[in-house]
């Protein structure tokens, strides 16, 4: 059974393009894999806490020396990391706000990209001391923006601080495989926007099939490796 973690980051509860994309993705996935498990977290409606000086101090305190207060402070982070660790597929449905990610999504990222949990730090590695601890996951980005041309070689490519930022962080989420489905032209509300929505809808099934094929291959490789260890 595959486990999917779905993160909704839109502040809108109604008429949200990204929430709609997320629901469509979930319905189409379940139509193909009805027994798979979804973990859902609506950070747009219930944002995680921002990290603080006390939070940082707790993170860098060895577990056996943490106070009860520090353990409480890190409890949400522990839960979010547990959800992430369990997931084979991460689905993030998020709008672009001011050319970047919503504050709620950044807060979620800051709670889970955590030393000795999702990455380790060792200066013996030289100039690249950080090493992710998770791997083998697929990441699906379902995004929407008011303008257009944020893709590769687009008129606003250099202004896109949403997709590239998440791609940079993806290795700390354990994602080796990344897919993005983007709706543009929202503020224009014209035929181009309608075509962009239709194109995004059409891309969902192909993305699901692509991920499902890779998951099957990964399971076959894991099974082969397990047999090899036993023989």
Describe the 3D structure:
It is built from 7 helices and 7 strands. α1 (17-32) links the parallel β1 and β2. α1 (17-32) crosses α7. 44% of the residues lie in helices and 18% in strands. The chain is globular and about 60 Å long. It has one domain (3-230): Flavodoxin domain (Rossmann fold, 3-Layer(aba) Sandwich), CATH 3.40.50. It has helices at 17-32, 53-59, 68-73, 75-86, 103-112, 163-173, 191-230, and strands at residues 3-8, 37-42, 89-95, 119-121, 130-132, 137-144, 175-183. It is an enzyme of class 1 (oxidoreductase).
Task: Offer a quick outline of the entry.
This protein is an alpha/beta fold and 231 residues long.
Secondary structure elements and pairings:
Blueprint (H helix, E strand, L loop, with lengths): L2 E6 L8 H16 L4 E6 L10 H7 L8 H6 L1 H12 L2 E7 L7 H10 L6 E3 L8 E3 L4 E8 L18 H11 L1 E9 L7 H40 L1
Helix pairs in contact: 1-7
